[in-house]
Amino acid sequence: MPVLTVDYRSPQAPFLFCHSLKETGFAVLTHHPISTQLIEKAYQQWQEFFYSDTKHQYTYQRPSQDGYFPFRTEKAKNQKISDLKEFFHFYPWGKIPPTLKQVSSTLYEHLYQLAAALLQWVEDFLPKPVAAKLSMPLKSMIENSPNTLLRILHYPPLDQNIDADAEAVRAAAHEDINLITLLPAATTPGLEVLDTQGHWHAVTCDPGSIVVNIGDMLQMCTEYYYKSTSHRVVNPDDTKNVSRLSMPLFLHPSDNIPLSARYTAQQYLHERLRAIGIY
């Protein structure tokens, strides 16, 4: 089954959205309430930031995780080669250049409100025995969580100076850590998702769309009813070798929320951050 593109306004949207998540781990929303102009403005301002020397004044510190992560800081879980990207972690409580605070805070809040509605859809379509095992409603898990973040990613154009490893890619195959991820359309294509037969498929980045996918935490707390799906960002070909920006919002539960008999949200988050080399 391909990843479905779902009109947010449709009466069938909750069913189709959850059906696509169940079958593929991904869904694409159109006609959603997030302003396209807001997204474009955020991309424009953040691109200026990544091309300036100002970014180094905001380099992240462990363990707070807020701020700027330099090029090739992170590698995917179980990978030896670091990704060809730099990025910034924005939390409402964290550091950020004053010129970027308004647009980033507004986008964060609008995406958060949409995510809360989508988590309700997800829970509404859980089988009753699965829903009964949740430690609390999914929307309640994210309330006042300090860990939900807007990650602004910049993948520079590739050239001989930065592509030191022949096998290095913009983002190696991985699964997200969190409950769900909301990804406004990136500035260029490149996102691919792995199907159950081991084939990779490109995911649309049409302007005005938002890609949503399952993370490991939702997989865990629904006992694999919803499955976290591997995805990657491939390198561009020579004709499209330009910068790529994307801005996923990662929805995280509060630290003490039980995900399973083994993990709280904080325990699992810290384990995964150590696995990718940034904690």
Walk me through the structure:
- By secondary structure, the chain is α+β, with helices and mostly antiparallel strands.
- It has a single domain, classed as B-lactam Antibiotic, Isopenicillin N Synthase, Chain (Jelly Rolls, Sandwich), CATH 2.60.120.
- Helices cover 29% and strands 19% of the residues.
- It contains seven helices and 13 strands.
- The strands form two sheets. Strands 1, 2, 3, 4, 5, 7, 10, 12 and 13 form a nine-stranded mixed beta sheet that branches. The protein has a four-stranded antiparallel beta sheet with strand order 6-11-8-9, with no helix packed on it.
- Strand 1, helix 1 and strand 2 form a beta-alpha-beta unit.
- The longest helix is centred in the middle third of the chain and has 27 residues, at 98-124.
- It is globular.
- The mean pLDDT is 94.
Q: What attributes does this structure have?
A:
279 residues; alpha+beta; single chain; four-stranded antiparallel β-sheet; Jelly Rolls; nine-stranded mixed β-sheet; 13 strands
Question: How are the SSEs ordered, and which strands pair?
Answer:
Layout: E1 5-7, H1 13-24, E2 26-30, H2 36-50, E3 67-69, E4 86-90, H3 98-124, H4 128-131, H5 138-142, E5 149-155, E6 171-174, E7 180-184, E8 191-194, E9 200-202, E10 210-214, H6 216-221, E11 231-233, E12 244-246, E13 249-250, H7 265-275
Parallel strand pairs: 1-2
Antiparallel strand pairs: 2-10, 3-4, 4-5, 5-12, 5-13, 6-11, 7-10, 7-13, 8-9, 8-11
Helix pairs in contact: 2-3
